[in-house]
Amino acid sequence: MKLYNYWRSGASWRVRNALALKGLSFEYVAVNLLSGEQHATAHRARNPAGYVPVLEISEEGRVEQLTQSVAILEYLEEMHPAPPLLPENPVARAKVRGLVELMNSGIQPFHNLSTINSVKELGGDPKLWAQKYLRSGLAALEQLAGPVAGQFLFGESPTFADCCLVPQLYGARRFGVEAQEFPLLARIEAACLSREPFKRAHADAQPDAVPV
Ligand SMILES: N[C@@H](CCC(=O)N[C@@H](CS)C(=O)NCC(=O)O)C(=O)O
């Protein structure tokens, strides 16, 4: 498997978390978002939306390119069910997916690079814009997690939701929103980052990471 990704792309990082938790090896292919490589013809052929991540797999002799981090998480879970990153119970699964979707469609798109660039072009304040959605989204996440969290965001073992949470909080800090504003989320982030797979998948541990 090849993962086209960028060290501090949150959506890429979700997939790296799942790969690490499942003990799957992959080839790391860096796509530099700051120099615009996501818009190059070669990458647009992989993902016409011009986003990372893209997971390239070989399926019955054919090469397939998968886009959208959450779809990729679902693919990995179906192909490599152990260890599971979704609970067994259908209601519990729906709740984990709900937490994921809050981050995937309710928070991250508002601070993605292209969104931030558009806010700047329109004369808005990108930091204030991002903070608004980060604070309201993370407050909702903290509230939803209250009754279902254990050591992790849902229960006692990592799920898709934790794969998304760690990069989401890193992204929040970049816009001046500290995890400490959300004590439960901060506690779960620390629990995740004390584990080897999450350390391996961390942005700062990637080959294209730039010290900040
Ligand atoms: N929903 C997509 C979002 C992908 C996405 O927003 N990727 C960002 C990095 S986290 C990206 O490639 N941004 C490039 C840009 O905005 O130009 C997914 O989950 O894969």
Helix content: 40-55%
Structural class, by secondary structure, is alpha+beta
Rounded to an integer in angstroms, the radius of gyration calculated over CA atoms is 17 Å
Shape annotation: globular
Number of E-type strands: 4
CATH topology of the largest domain: the name is: Glutathione S-transferase Yfyf (Class Pi), Chain A, domain 2
**Number of helices in the DSSP assignment:** 10
* Content of β-strand: 5-15%
The top-level CATH class of the largest domain is: Mainly Alpha
Kindly report the average pLDDT value. Answer: 98
CATH architecture label of the largest domain: Up-down Bundle
Which spans have pLDDT < 50 for at least 5 consecutive residues? none
Cα-to-Cα separation, first versus last residue: 29 Å
Sheet with the most strands: spatial strand order: 2-1-3-4
Q: Give every kind of bound small molecule, once each.
A: glutathione
Largest sheet: 4 strands, mixed
Number of domains: 2
How would you describe this structure to a colleague?
The chain is of the alpha+beta class. The chain folds into two domains: 2-82, Glutaredoxin (3-Layer(aba) Sandwich); 90-197, Glutathione S-transferase Yfyf (Class Pi), Chain A, domain 2, CATH 1.20.1050.10. The chain has ten helices and four strands. It has helices at residues 10-21, 41-46, 69-79, 90-106, 108-111, 113-121, 126-145, 160-174, 183-193, 196-201; strands at residues 2-5, 27-30, 54-59, 62-67. Strands 2-1-3-4 form a four-stranded mixed beta sheet. Helix 4 (90-106) runs parallel beside helix 8 and helix 8 packs across helix 9 (183-193). The longest helix is centred in the middle third of the chain and has 20 residues, at 126-145. The mean pLDDT is 98. It binds glutathione. Residues 9-11, 33, 38, 50-53, 68-70, 104, 112-114 line the site of glutathione.
